[in-house]
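User: We ran a pulldown and think these components assemble together. Before we commit to crystallization trials, I'd like a predicted model of the whole complex to look at. Sequences follow.
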Amino acid sequence: MKNAKWKFLMVTVVSFALVGTGMVVGCKKKPGNPLPDSNAVSGWEKSSETRTFAAKDLWQYIDGDAEQYISAGVVSTSTSDYKYQGQLEAVVDVYTMGDAAGAGKILDTGRTKEAVAVQVGDAGISYAQSIVFRKGANLVRIVAYESTPGASQALLALAHGVEARL
Amino acid sequence: MSNRRDFLKSAATGAVLLGSQSKLGLAAAVAGHADAGKSKVVVAKDPALHNAAGQLDDKRVIELLDRAIASYTGHDRPVDSWKHLVPTDKVIGLKVNGLGGKGISTHLALVLAVCERLQQAGVKPGNIIVWDRNARDIEACGLTISTDPGKIRVFGSDVSGYEDQKETWGTASIKLSKILTRECAMVIGLPILKDHSGAGVTFAMKNMYGVIDRPQDLHNGGCNPGVADLNCIPTVREKVRFTIGDAMSSVYNGGPGFRPEHLWQPNTLIVGEDRVAVDHTAWQMIAKKRAEVGMPSLDDAKRPPRYIATAADAAHNLGTNDPSRIHLLEV
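Assistant: Here's a predicted model for the assembly, 497 residues in total across the polymer chains.
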């Protein structure tokens, strides 16, 4: 009887602790895979596994380009290849920076006069074959390997799909 | 694509082997053709290399290669040129560059063209190794991994591994890929021309960052003197003896990754033995393009490729960046 009471008390305490933790965590976005699964965005198939690089290993992915991200405070980078309607190939990179300023720095560094502002994330720009945007501390770059009719719209749809997961 | 299939089939069987072996090395081949005391650099261009859809014409690529090599060596027949460029009885490495991913890596058409000409000169398929850092970079060039000794071998340093022993020259203290140290007698660099956010320009000498275990250790100071020091390491200096630079497509800003908004098609090969002169020539090409589109020069952007001058200084003596000492031949 004493054991049963003790068990009940423990279960109650643990349950409250779990619920409480869940409530706290629930206030933040899950730090899961920011890259959409196949067909989560219409027409887009995820054609490779997600690869993730810590800041110290980013050189393995982008070698010399890593320096500018590191100096802007990159924490980790996730990347995956995609294919649109079996034809248009693209790559999505999500750079998680230490803060929003770091993401903004990279976005501003890469902006040229040809850039067109797009409504995605907190701020975004697009070119014929690419979209770059930031949301919070995340900097997202989506690049298509060729220019096809409708590529811009398809990339924008994928960008919104990534945005929704950040 | 049928050309590629035929070629690969021939490569696998060795059926395209032609000619006999030469005992002449590279120095003998170029000595009689460069202006006295000058480094010869050939810039071969074909404005129609890409078709209207932006696709490379494979046939024109091999013709462009032939024109470049013929101009460099002075031999009309490709087979004669190649016999003098390489020791045909040895293992020849082709160091490609696939770091930038699919959009901006050494073009498959060029790799296949070089492989075809090497075999015609008498190099056995199994004595040709196409290589880069790892499988991903190799696949970015459109190549497929193969370690079959009877065929052209294609694999990365992730397969071969790196030497345990470090080699040191100046600031470069690195472990070299065993493909370079143990497999290849001679390496031809097949870099692709790119702007580089740190180094300014990446081409012949910077391509050697892909032959070492920890390239990130040599990125300080805009890769200066890292690039020059690395190329002074005796194994690199002695084995990497020729460059067939791929400037058929390039990015003039935002590199070394693929930035389609800054992609352009120079439709050019830059060929030479003097890696410094080749890089200097490549830099001028990017500088001209940036000026054409109204972008600041690399000096103004605070990332001039200083390592080129360092490589030419007395301490490094890897070649020349002095235009008056470069015999530039545009064909």
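The interface with chain B takes residues 59, 62-68, 89, 91, 110, 112, 114-115, 127-130, 143-147 of chain A (CB under 8 Å). That may be worth checking against your pulldown data before setting up trials.

User: Thanks, that helps.
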